[in-house]
């Protein structure tokens, strides 16, 4: 492809679409590349309650993203589906090689996101958004006064379990070891919380239910014993939160932009990476809170920075 865009945005989740909207309103020549369905992780959320000003009844992650996508089209963004396999970012003109085509741009906004490390149990995919979640901040409210289970034993798992106690009547941490890996200060809070119990030396092997998560089989890794857990009939379901870790979608950019030891891209507050003309936004970058509201803010900031840099050409 000979065409050189002002900016190519990699990823069509909230961060990428927000960047596309702001760049489009600045009359930049934009291409948004998404390898699959637009939306990122938010499309797995059936209800949205914590997006400011969100008052549309029955709003889902899919419907919210659909409106974002349409906004980018209204302001001239071009969309293509392709999987980028190589990125040359060092020159003034960045070159992206995909499975279908090659793309060039003066600026790149990386919005490829991150994905939760799977719990690894049978039936997990089927019950995502139907009892299985990977974000307590997003979904805790849906499990108010219900029983909730947390798979994991590190800082994130225990911190999220503590957060869930504000909503659930009981929280059980399922951990494959006989002690937690979380920081001692976090462990002390968990052990002192009367709502939290522990299922040691155990992993989730299978989940099931009639449309919603209602059963779970847990295996003791030392004895091999299988235990079936069933939801209270009065509740109709329970929650299972996976906090085994997140995996950033940064493999294509390995050794091309600076990352932390987990693979997240390092940026400054204006979303600049260490490579001129390359920005990172949303879940893919090093940050303390990964939510829709912070993703769209990142996208807006990056697009404004691109527009300012283009005024210098």
TrEMBL record:
<comment type="subunit">
    <text>Homodimer.</text>
</comment>
<dbReference type="GO" id="GO:0005737">
    <property type="term" value="C:cytoplasm"/>
</dbReference>
<keyword id="KW-0560">Oxidoreductase</keyword>
<dbReference type="GO" id="GO:0004791">
    <property type="term" value="F:thioredoxin-disulfide reductase (NADPH) activity"/>
</dbReference>
<dbReference type="InterPro" id="IPR005982">
    <property type="entry name" value="Thioredox_Rdtase"/>
</dbReference>
<keyword id="KW-0285">Flavoprotein</keyword>
<comment type="similarity">
    <text>Belongs to the class-II pyridine nucleotide-disulfide oxidoreductase family.</text>
</comment>
<dbReference type="Pfam" id="PF07992">
    <property type="entry name" value="Pyr_redox_2"/>
</dbReference>
<dbReference type="InterPro" id="IPR050097">
    <property type="entry name" value="Ferredoxin-NADP_redctase_2"/>
</dbReference>
<dbReference type="InterPro" id="IPR023753">
    <property type="entry name" value="FAD/NAD-binding_dom"/>
</dbReference>
<dbReference type="GO" id="GO:0019430">
    <property type="term" value="P:removal of superoxide radicals"/>
</dbReference>
<keyword id="KW-0274">FAD</keyword>
<feature type="domain" description="FAD/NAD(P)-binding">
    <location>
        <begin position="5"/>
        <end position="299"/>
    </location>
</feature>
<protein>
    <recommendedName>
        <fullName>Thioredoxin reductase</fullName>
        <ecNumber>1.8.1.9</ecNumber>
    </recommendedName>
</protein>
<dbReference type="InterPro" id="IPR036188">
    <property type="entry name" value="FAD/NAD-bd_sf"/>
</dbReference>
<keyword id="KW-0676">Redox-active center</keyword>
């Amino acid at each position: 492809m000979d065409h050189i865009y002002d900016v190519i945005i990699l990823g069509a989740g909230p961060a990428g679409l927000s960047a596309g909207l702001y760049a489009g309103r600045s009359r930049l020549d934009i291409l948004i590349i998404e390898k699959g369905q637009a939306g990122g992780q938010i499309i797995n959320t059936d209800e949205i309650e914590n997006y400011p000003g969100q008052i549309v009844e029955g709003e889902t992650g899919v419907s919210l993203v659909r409106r974002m996508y349409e906004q980018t089209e209204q302001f001239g963004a071009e969309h293509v589906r392709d999987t980028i396999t190589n990125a040359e970012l060092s020159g003034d003109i960045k070159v992206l090689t995909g499975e279908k085509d090659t793309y060039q741009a003066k600026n790149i906004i990386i919005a490829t996101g991150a994905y939760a490390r799977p719990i690894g149990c049978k039936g997990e995919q089927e019950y995502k958004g139907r009892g299985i979640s990977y974000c307590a901040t997003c979904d805790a409210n849906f499990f108010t006064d219900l029983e909730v289970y947390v798979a994991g034993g590190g800082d994130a798992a225990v911190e999220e379990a503590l957060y869930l106690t504000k909503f659930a009547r009981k929280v059980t941490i399922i951990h494959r070891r006989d002690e937690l890996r979380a920081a001692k200060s976090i462990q002390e809070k968990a052990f002192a919380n009367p709502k939290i119990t522990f299922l040691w030396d155990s992993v989730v092997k299978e989940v099931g239910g009639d449309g919603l998560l209602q059963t779970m089989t847990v295996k003791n890794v030392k004895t091999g014993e299988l235990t079936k857990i069933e939801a209270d009939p009065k509740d109709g379901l329970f929650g299972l939160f996976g906090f085994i870790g997140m995996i950033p979608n940064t493999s294509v950019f390995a050794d091309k932009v600076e990352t932390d030891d987990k693979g997240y891209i390092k940026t400054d507050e204006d979303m600049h990476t260490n490579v001129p003309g390359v920005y990172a936004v949303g879940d893919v970058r090093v940050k303390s809170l990964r939510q829709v509201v912070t993703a769209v803010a990142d996208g807006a900031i990056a697009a404004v920075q691109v527009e300012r840099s283009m005024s210098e050409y």
